[in-house]
Design goal:
seven-stranded mixed β-barrel, about 150 residues, mainly beta
Length: about 150
């Protein structure tokens, strides 16, 4: 199995998403950060400190930062007119500056988490932010403008 950031806990509440897990298949030395990459604009990234002790990591990200980074003039216009719902997705990695480990949950023998595990949405400035598992059991974030789901 490829090295990755194995997610053990996802806590979306109080305007933050807290992630706890283990570094799997890669030495855990050095300084680590949570790295979020906007899927539709890979050059747009946000990063936050991650605390690492042994192979265990913990970090959190404020949903307001995602709402601000996602809220372009086009999506804000959609919100104001009720023209529709826009969706932006952010992929989560753990990085030490040299390697980027994709965050996901693969060691639990539960396949198809996308249809099984549903996390609550947090709304900030008209944008809903919700963690979700992809079809490959990676963890990503969905930012949805417009009507709440």
């Amino acid at each position: 199995m490829k090295p990755h950031a194995e997610i053990a806990e996802v806590w979306p509440r109080d305007g933050r998403v807290r992630l706890v897990g283990h570094i799997h298949g890669h030495p855990a030395e050095g300084r680590w950060r949570l790295l979020l990459t906007r899927r539709s604009h890979a050059e747009q990234r946000l990063d936050y400190p991650a605390q690492v002790k042994g192979d265990r990591f913990e970090g959190e990200l404020p949903v307001a930062d995602l709402a601000a980074a996602t809220g372009t003039a086009e999506t804000e216009a959609e919100i104001g007119t009720g023209a529709g719902v826009g969706v932006e997705e952010w992929d989560i990695h753990l990085t030490d500056g040299q390697v980027e480990l994709r965050a996901g949950r693969r060691l639990d023998d539960i396949h198809g988490k996308k249809k099984i595990m549903v996390f609550p949405e947090q709304r900030v400035r008209g944008i809903g932010v919700r963690p979700y598992y992809t079809v490959k059991d990676n963890l990503s974030l969905e930012c949805r403008t417009g009507a709440s789901t």
